[in-house]
Amino acid sequence: MRASVRRLLRSAWPPALVFAVLVLAWDLIANAVHASLSLPGPWYVVTGSWRDRGDLAAAMWVTTEEALLGIALAVLCAVILALAVDWSRAVRRSIYPLMVLSQTIPLIALAPVVVIWFGFGPAPKIAIVALFTFFAVAVGTIQGLGSADPDTMSLLRTMGASRAQILWRVRIPSALPQFFTGLKVGVTFSYVAAIFAEYVGATQGLGYYMSTANQYFNTELVFGAVIVSALLTLALFGLVVALERAVIRWRPPAQVNARW
């Protein structure tokens, strides 16, 4: 237990120190240019957001629901499509290039169209989050399925294993590390995508909250919502990391401190 606490402290103090320096610099700059740029200091942002915590919490839960549902939809579609691409060469030749081509389309430009199609409810926000997070999960899963050990698959074939058994026992376990890597990349876009969709058209959520606060020149509330969205994204990323460690217990931890 003590060793775990020591490791946690050793890994936590460098970013905590950098964060403290950034907050101090922010406070100094805000005090210097507050009158001309209307830049609120960190304490002013915290106190203002706390006073408006009721509306901020309601907006936070709405955006969180949209982000989580969008990620769930993206994961479901990405896994199904990745399995189809890995299962059939015809599907790979016909679908995989279209997946890559879809990423050349500016999704930001599609957001107003999606709102027109689905209205101002949660559906367009969920769809936009799914569009932003789908590609990373799908590509990671496809690459992971293709990285399975060929010798292991040959051994199972000689023992009479079917394609479904090989998929379940070899290819899917081999794909899990890259699947979680793609998921960690994807979840970092979830709140940003949901907030942008709410900016385009919404009646609630963090994007709507920031837009309304900006109209009334409540800059401290805008900064508070930005900080809340960043903290929520970090929490979601940490949740995915914890889930990865729980699911892939057989995988050795990355040697981030190893020397060359």
Structure overview:
- Helix content is 83%, strand content 0%.
- The chain has one domain (59-247): MetI-like fold (Orthogonal Bundle).
- It starts with a helix and ends in a 13-residue tail after the last helix.
- The protein is mainly alpha-helical and 260 residues long.
- It contains 11 helices and no strands.
CATH class descriptor name:
Mainly Alpha
> How can the largest sheet be summarized?
none
Judging from the principal axes of the Cα atoms, what is the shape? globular
Q: CATH superfamily assignment?
A: MetI-like
Number of helices: 11
| End-to-end gap | 30 Å
Mean pLDDT over all positions:
84
Tell me the β content.
under 5%
Rg to the nearest angstrom? 22 Å
Q: Which structural class do you get from the secondary structure elements?
A: mainly alpha
Q: Quick one: how many beta strands?
A: 0
When the domains are counted, the total is 1
Q: What is the level-2 CATH architecture name?
A: Orthogonal Bundle
Layout of helices and strands:
Elements: H1 2-37, H2 42-51, H3 53-87, H4 89-102, H5 107-118, H6 122-146, H7 150-158, H8 163-187, H9 190-200, H10 206-215, H11 219-247
Helix pairs in contact: 2-11, 3-4, 3-6, 3-9, 3-10, 5-6, 6-8, 6-9, 8-11, 9-10, 10-11
